[in-house]
């Protein structure tokens, strides 16, 4: 926050992240936004990750299905820490840079996640160096000392400092033509109540996790001075939150602006509905008591094996809670979570689009 003196009056100028909070609060009064990971990069039947293939530029499965872009687009920076030219899903960072700014400039909202490789086990070039997934990746959970190793005094401390620097360098480039930093919902260390990432529940202590969060946040906000990042804390679908358990790893009200929920239906519909309802009841109460925004920061049913899932299962639950947005995970030919015109779920997605309380790009552009 910048306090500028103007005559005798103090004029408060909000940071870019605070302006985004205001916009999200205004949008919330009109419904919740639809989001999609990697929306302009590739889809169920096409791959636009190769720069220069102009036929694929501007494509997007949501756009092809309903004639409108998602309001929110998600991008992942896994791989930036090693100076890779492409991210973990083969998307060139130059494309992420361009598409993220383009979505902001067309009036959309952007969010970034980060699946950094495992600093203890990664080999330079990873897969190209013979490493077989999950070895060396964010999903390499063979060692429970990784988080400890990157904290001050740890064996990987210097290495991880350089990883944060590379992340910061890329974030620094996310500016509009006139040099304005793009507002970004930044969502590191997600799904930390599960144990499938090296920063997960069984892979570090509560204190180590909080120190990890603080180290990255302090580096980006204090050392690098980023005031365009809106920090999202996004645990995974849990079903059994208690305030006490949630607080064990919660970074703190001064460090979090948005409470997220990553929720996929991997098992039965009944289990999913029960757990999601329990979680959103707890998280929305927590968000309200603590003045936080709420969102479904990742969600979906893999390969849409139930073509009416969005309006029959997901929407009725989302309708009951003050979420800002829901973000369906990526549409990749082998695993997709969003619509595509030729899929049976396209009809259901159109219903979702037509619902009054779901917001896509054209609608949010109009709401000031
Ligand atoms: C996971 C899967 C992976 C992907 C990763 C990062 O949920 O979709 O295939 O590499 O997210 O996008």
Overview of the structural elements:
By secondary structure, the chain is α/β, with parallel strands linked by helices. 34% of the residues lie in helices and 16% in strands. It contains 11 helices and 13 strands. It has an 8-stranded parallel β-barrel. The chain has a two-stranded antiparallel sheet with strand order 1-2. Helix 9 (309-318) links the parallel strand 9 and strand 10 (325-328). Helix 8 (269-290) runs parallel beside helix 9 (309-318). It is globular, with a radius of gyration of 20 Å. The structure holds beta-D-mannopyranose (BMA). Residues 76, 88-89, 115, 329-330, 335 line the site of beta-D-mannopyranose.
Question: Could you list the spans in which at least 5 consecutive residues all have pLDDT below 50?
Answer: 1-9
For the residues shown, what is the average pLDDT?
Answer: 95
Structural class: alpha/beta
Q: Which percent band covers the strand fraction?
A: 15-25%
Quaternary state reads: single chain
Distance between the termini: 22 Å
Radius of gyration computed on alpha carbons: 20 Å
Q: Tally the helices.
A: 11
